[in-house]
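Reviewer 2 asked us to include a model.

Predict the structure of this chain.
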Amino acid sequence: MNRPLLITDCDEVLLHMVSHFAAWLGEAHEINFALDRHDFVGALTARADGAPVPPEKVWPLLDGFFDTEMHRQTLVPHAREALAAIGAVADIVVLTNLGDHRQPGRVAQLDAHGIRHRVVCNQGGKGRPVAKLIEEFTPSVAVFVDDLPQHHESVAKHAPDVWRLHMVAEPLMAPHISAAPHAHVRIDDWAVAQTWVLDRFAMRAVA
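Predicted model (structure tokens):
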């Protein structure tokens, strides 16, 4: 029988990103980022006058962060240890919404934090790429972890037999984010999530 499969996001699941992005925006661009909002558009305002940063300027700023500032990102507590325990019994894929050209950089970044698993880059909803990974691995059971509710909805649509864990590991943001309605559970701590994932592997079938 094939091994179980864990498919996990990276930013705000394995590595902290938004707090470091916010710090860089302030230092380099005199922009405030409201961490009580789980979106980039509308959360960024100019320090000079409080005016919202136009949406067409937000994504270039995010690209700029990933161009030069990925070294700022820090490991989410317990993530490395949880993946080590899960990886002893399951295959692991990191499914990250970055441009394909950033895949080597993300691999190197995670490797520097002691996380060495296959990295797949994606743009848009994650349901189809998750379904593709399920077809490739044919696992005995699979678990998907992500911080964005829309990806849980996408996976529920395209790969409904996958267990779905909603995690927002940024403590400044998590209290302001509702549990994803299409996830099976919300857990923001890998020390707890590890047990839940291993229990799903033992249960196999989605309830």
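The chain has a mean pLDDT of 95. The radius of gyration is 17 Å. We have added this to the supplementary material.
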